[in-house]
Amino acid sequence: MIGWLGGAYLWVLALHIISVIAWMAGMLYLPRLYVYHTEAQPGGEFSEKLKVMERRLLRAIINPAMIASWTFGLMLFLHLGAWSMGWMHVKLTLVVIMSAFHGYLSRWRKDFERDANRRSQTFYRMMNEVPTVLMIGIVIFVVVKPF
Ligand code: HEM
């Protein structure tokens, strides 16, 4: 499989970076909406507006962008034969944690949807930092390739 993308490699890399930017934009913003949501009166106008924003952000941007990031990323992975690269193992581990965090964001959205959130604002403020830290690690491993 190594080199199978041929001249399309750079196009796939560009598509990977574009989809990763969209995924990260949503992952960085959604927990911030949850911070605001803890301040809203359940059933009130602000809360209902936040529910629509959260649902659209997750379904229209974050979910498709994650699928595209994985698809293009795995194409690059096969092209490079990246299983032999140490940095790639660390990057993939961090990306798997990012994907699991995506799953938690989705679960928490459903709690807000049902007016059933019981987590505090402090909790969401802390969770808000998780994708930032993961993203910094991923970019350092993929660009600097420390090992
Ligand atoms: C979803 C699963 C992912 C897979 C399987 C994957 C895999 C890859 C592979 C194999 C490359 C090519 C590396 C090279 O050309 O040297 C790459 C490039 C890149 N990836 Fe990912 N990636 C994923 C997600 C992410 C995420 C979440 C980020 C950022 C938060 C990211 C950021 C980058 C960047 C910035 C590059 C360009 C590096 C360069 O050309 O120097 N990737 N990725």
TrEMBL record:
The chain crosses the membrane at residues 6-30, 57-80, 86-105, 126-144. Pathway: Porphyrin-containing compound metabolism; protoporphyrin-IX biosynthesis; protoporphyrin-IX from protoporphyrinogen-IX: step 1/1. It is a multi-pass membrane protein. It comes from the Bacteria. GO terms for cellular component: plasma membrane. It catalyses: protoporphyrinogen IX + 3 A = protoporphyrin IX + 3 AH2. Heme binds at residues 16, 91. It is found in: Cell membrane. Binds 1 heme b (iron(II)-protoporphyrin IX) group per subunit. The keyword Magnesium does not apply. Its main location: membrane. It is an enzyme of class 1 (oxidoreductase). The keyword Metal-binding applies. GO terms for molecular function: metal ion binding; protoporphyrinogen oxidase activity. Its EC number is 1.3.99.-. Its cofactor is heme b. Keywords: Cell membrane, Heme, Iron, Membrane, Metal-binding, Oxidoreductase, Transmembrane, Transmembrane helix. NCBIfam families: protoporphyrinogen oxidase HemJ (TIGR00701). Catalyzes the oxidation of protoporphyrinogen IX to protoporphyrin IX. Belongs to the HemJ family. Homodimer. This is Protoporphyrinogen IX oxidase. The gene is hemJ.
